[in-house]
Amino acid sequence: MVHSASGTWSKGQTRLYALSFAGPAPYVKIGRTSDISRRIMRLRHEANMHGYALVDAWASHSSDQAPRWERRLIRALSERSPRHSKEYHHGADFQHIVALAKKIVER
Fold first, then answer.
1. Three-state DSSP class for 2?
2. Which of 25, 95, 23, 91 is nearest to 58 (CA)?
């Protein structure tokens, strides 16, 4: 199930997102996109090919601030998560990442 902060899922509206994948080494993928539906479909397809499944998702409301939010979230997570590569956070707690993303978006 995808949880959205608000708004429609129309193309062209940039959003911050977090996706939780289950599999051999569970991970959370964060990023931003202007086509959330297409992005989720592509990442889900890639994950499925490697034995992973999308189990949860969150997206912010659309905003021209999404690039700034993404940078702040990446910086905050890099300070807290030793097992990451910028947008991929292995073993991370999805709810914790979403709570942090929401704080950033609400500022």
1. strand
2. 95
